[in-house]
Amino acid sequence: MAVAFVVLVAAIAFLINFIIVHVERTTFKSEEEMRKAMQGRFAIERDYEDIVIEGDDIVLTYLAYSHYNRDYAERYGYNYDEQDSVYEDRVVKWDYRNGVIKTAWMGDIIVDKNGNIRRGDEYYFTFYKTDKPRPEPIDPATLKNVEGDVNADIPEEDEEAFEEIHEDLEALQDAAEDAEMTGESDVES
Q1: What per-residue confidence (pLDDT) applies to 188?
Q2: Is residue 149 very low, low, confident or very high in pLDDT (cuts 50, 70, 90)?
Q3: What is the pLDDT of residues 40-80, one digit of tens each?
Q4: Which of 22, 83, 121, 154 has its CA 20 to 30 A from that of 69?
Q5: What are phi and psi of 174, to 5 degrees?
Q6: In Å, what is the CA distance from 46 to each residue of 9, 68, 113, 119, 125?
C-alpha cells in the first residue's frame, strides 16, 4: 500500500505540473520554433528595463533612470555619472515543451501564455514583447532644472519601486559575479 500511495502522489504531482505548464505558459512544437518566436525585445517600460534575445544571446539592461525619465530628471536631477547596467548571458537550453528558456547564470526565463517573459516565477515583473525601440536618452540641455530639487520628497510608491529595482539589480550583480568566477559568462556593467 505504501508503494501504491507513493506512486499515486507522484502521478498527481506530475498531473498538476502538466496542467500548470499548459495553462500558464506557451509551449512549442520544437526548439527551433521556440527560438524563432522568442527573438526580439521584451521590456518593462515603467521601470526602464529590457531583455533583448538575439539567437542564443540574451542581454538584460537596466536603463539609467535619470537619463530616460524626464519627470524624474526634472524633480531629482540628471545624474551624468549614472550608466546603463548591461548584463550578457546565453541560452543553454530552449525547453520548448515547458515554455522555459534556461540560461547560463541568469536563471530560468518563463514564457507566459501571451508570449511575454518573466525571470523565474516573478509574476510582478513581466517583460512584454514589443516592436518599439529603446527610448532615446534625454538631452540634459532640454531640462528646466538639471540639478533637480534637493528638497524634493520622493512619493512612497516611487521609493518602493526604486528599492525593488535596486534589490533586483544587486541580486543580478551577485549572480553575474558568481558566474564570472566560474567562467560561465562575460558580464559588462
Answers
A1: 40
A2: low
A3: 999 998 888 999 999 999 999 999 988 998 888 888 888 89
A4: 121
A5: -60, -45
A6: 43, 11, 22, 17, 11
Mean predicted lDDT score pLDDT of the chain: 85
Q: How do 117-119 and 57-62 pair as beta strands? A: unpaired
Using pLDDT thresholds of 50, 70 and 90, give the confidence band for residue 151.
low
According to DSSP, the residues that pair with 111 across neighbouring strands are 117
What pTM was computed for the model? 0.76
Of the candidates 83, 86, 95, 26, which has an alpha carbon nearest to the alpha carbon of residue 52? 86
User: Using H for helix, E for strand and C for coil, what is the string for the chain?
Assistant: CHHHHHHHHHHHHHHHHHHHHHHHECCCCCHHHHHHHCCEEEEEHHHCEEEEEECCEEEEEECCHHHHCHHHHHHHCCCCCCCCEEEEEEEEEEECCCCEEEECCCCEEEEECCCCEEECCCCCCEEEEECCCCCCCCCHHHCCCCCCCCCCCCCHHHHHHHHHHHHHHHHHHHHHHHHHHCCCCCCCC
Read off the amino acid at residue 98: N
Question: From CA 130, how far away is CA 42, in angstroms rounded?
Answer: 6
Q: Which three cell numbers stand for residue 74?
A: 526634472
Instruction: Report whether 103 contacts 30 (CB < 8 A).
Output: no
